[in-house]
Specification:
Length: 431
């Protein structure tokens, strides 16, 4: 390799070279270690002083020199101070992390260990400094990054994009905030958001950047959005009346079937208190206690029978399923409410007695009036009286019609056998 090729190779590297033929009369110098000749001359004067100091002799023509907070490996021939011979010298920067001024030392340490990725590049796309978080994005170390160029780590099209951004900063001279798209070492797409801004480093204007990797955050947001869309589709296409309630019992969102169930428009249902949708009925206080236990995480789900009210004064019995939402160990944040097994909407009627409900369950089971009287230890006349009273309350002219009305009005549980009351607290209980 001739002198011109060597000089071209050294031009952009972190080295400084010189050539002289008289005692420290420099004939030629170059390299990318210093931004201006004045700084280079100050460094050369420092080298001359070190060589002239008998207390710091070089070993085999080499020693480490400190200059402007940077460390250089300096090499020159043993007779470098002799005037009779032209010779050359070479200084290579070996400490690639220039010391920050003392007043910024704490800040430099903080940025170096911060989770935000930060870097400094010169106008030629060469890394002067990078912290651990930035190097991690490329699956390498900060030491490996420093001194290398953008093209050494990024794909050609991305390297062109990054150089264009750098030039924009150098031209404008002001910070720019933007979202950066890049390719991760595993080939997946990465996203980062942050700022690029001009800085003065080694007496030259460079480009610095600090970014937060939001790839995992965006992925989680997309996954959450997809899950919400699937849940919304499931909610709207099952036809089940369901609603999401706050811990205070207010409707946050609801299905179209839920709005239809209560004869309300969907905007009118959202925001309402859930207890205003219930008709007065025995067992409401018990439901409130179970709700409080649900919110307090004493139980995760509740299934019970409720009487629902409507805007036209009609009521219907239904099965209500309540399930907590959220991961807090102390208190549930929200509750999903789902309605199943709706009865026929009907005008309110007086609450039936336990004896009347028991007669209905035996009648639905196929028992005759005599069998019912024997089972309940009642007279035949008393059973006949109760059946006549029930036909009047439920609007059923015959025994079969009475059983059918008991089911469609939600008095008897539709999925239970032997027949039992829809409000029975235990599966084996008949009332």
């Amino acid at each position: 390799m001739d002198d011109s090729s060597l000089k071209a190779l050294l031009e952009d590297l972190p080295v400084f070279w010189w050539e002289f033929d008289q005692p420290w009369h420099v004939r030629e110098r170059g390299g990318g270690a210093f931004a201006d000749t004045g700084t280079a001359q100050r460094f050369l004067d420092r080298v001359r002083q070190e060589l002239a100091d008998p207390g710091h002799p070089p070993r085999d023509g080499r020693w480490l020199a400190r200059f402007d907070g940077r460390t250089f490996d300096v090499s020159c021939p043993r007779d470098a101070t002799r005037a009779h011979r032209r010779t050359r010298g070479l200084a290579v920067e070996v400490d690639t992390h220039p010391e920050a001024p003392r007043r910024y030392a704490a800040f430099a340490d903080l940025v170096d260990l911060a989770p935000a990725a930060a870097f400094i590049r010169d106008r030629h796309g060469r890394y002067l400094w990078a912290n651990h978080a930035y190097a991690h994005l490329y699956g390498t170390t900060a030491q490996e990054l420093t001194g290398r160029r953008i093209e050494d780590f990024d794909a050609p099209e991305e390297a062109v994009q990054f150089r264009t951004l750098d030039q924009e900063i150098l031209t404008r001279g002001t910070p720019v905030r933007h979202t950066l798209h890049y390719r991760r070492p595993d080939g997946s797409a990465g996203h980062a958001v942050g700022h690029r801004f001009p800085v003065r480093e080694n007496a030259q204007t460079c480009v610095a950047g600090i970014y937060v990797d939001i790839t995992d955050h965006l992925r989680a947001m997309v996954q959450r959005q997809e899950a919400e869309e699937r849940l919304r589709a499931l909610r709207d296409h099952t036809g089940l009346p369901c609603a999401l309630l706050t811990a205070g019992g207010r409707v946050i969102e609801a299905s179209a079937a839920a709005a239809e169930l209560f004869d309300l428009g969907l905007p009118d249902l959202v925001g309402r208190r859930a207890h205003t949708l219930l008709a007065p009925a025995p067992g409401l206080e018990r439901l409130h206690r179970r709700w409080r236990g649900l919110i307090a995480r004493r139980t995760r789900r509740v299934e019970t029978s409720v009487m629902l009210g409507g805007t036209r004064g009609l009521q219907r019995r239904a099965r209500l399923h309540l399930t907590t939402v959220g991961h807090s160990a102390d208190r549930a944040g929200q509750v999903w409410a789902v309605v199943t097994h709706q009865s026929l909407a009907h005008q309110a009627h007086p609450a039936l007695t336990a004896a009347q409900i028991r007669i209905l369950t035996l009648l639905a089971e196929g028992s005759s009036n005599s069998d019912i009287a024997t089972s309940l230890k009642l007279s035949r006349q008393t059973v006949d009286y109760h059946l006549g009273r029930l036909r009047g309350l439920l609007g059923a002219p015959t025994r079969p019609a009475l059983v059918a009305r008991a089911y469609v009005l939600g008095i008897l549980a539709p999925a239970a056998w032997p027949p039992r009351s829809a409000t029975a607290a235990h599966p084996l209980s008949t009332v």
